[in-house]
Structures are given as structure tokens and as C-alpha cells.
Amino acid sequence: MKIRLLFLFCLLTMLPTENRALSPRAAEKPTFTLTEGGAKVYYSFDHYAENPKMSRSFISGEMLKVASHSKLWKSSAWSISSVANRLTSVLSLHTHSMSTTKKVQEDMKKVSKIKAYELYMQTYWNDIKLIVFCHRGKGKVIEELLIFKFRSNYCSRVMQLTGKIQPEDITNIIKK
Length: 176
Hints:
Number of strands: 8
Mean pLDDT: 78
Oligomer: single chain
Shape: globular
Low-confidence stretches: 17-28
């Protein structure tokens, strides 16, 4: 009986296997792309670059460092002035198109399936839906933050921040 088990074990060890870790997120190495400023992102929104229904703003790390002491970054949706000096890039997308909002919702579903991201927060109030994904670096540091904000079925906003973000910074960034 022991010889059979040993023989079976030897056969199994010779078979090709997948490299599996204990963590389901570690099963495959996530792929990333680099932004214009050189920051790593695990999901690219470049497909909206030519969309006339989408307002798209990109702020590089150099611009953020220059303006880190100003209140310039406040808007009705979020404020990054308190964390601007630790960010390497900010991408902001905004639309009032129903068809583009549907595409953004599809993007959000794709992001939820990417192993590099974890769902950090999800909340609903009135007709506003807010979903936050993050990619963590070492320790508590968040290297990438993705914020999706939907109002009804016609308005959507996306904010993609990269840098060294702390979990407590998220409440300073998001406003209701």
C-alpha cells in the first residue's frame, strides 16, 4: 500500500502543474500599463480619448507637485488637495451621456474581475452610486485608487489616482 502511494505521488509530481499560491489574487501576475507620467495602472481608460461625449482630464505628477499647496483641486465630486503632494497622476472622466455611462458601467464590471484590484467601498444614497477599487502596494499604502460615481443612468464620473495613498485619505478625496 505504501509503495503504491509513493508511486502515485511520484507520478503526480512529474505532471505539469500550474503555479498556485494560497491566495486567489496571487494565482496570476497582473499586467499593467504606464500612464504618460510613468505611473502603473492596471486598467486603462484610453479608449475614451476620442469620445466627444466624455470630458477627460489628465494631471501629471509634476503638475501635482507644483500645485500641491493650492485649493485648486476641489470640485463638487471630490477633493485631492490634501493628498496632491503624494500623487503621481490623476485621470478624471465625466459624462452626461446615457450610452457612455453604460460603457463606463461595463468598464467597472471589467475592473471588478481584475485580480489586481480589490473592492474597497460601495455605497448608495439617493440616486448616487459610489464604488471604490484599490490596488495595494506594500503595507497599507494604496498605489492606485479607482473611484466610480454614477448618478441615475445618465451621469458618470471616474477618477483614477496613482501614488502613495493611505486608506484614511479616501474620505478626504470623496465628497457626497
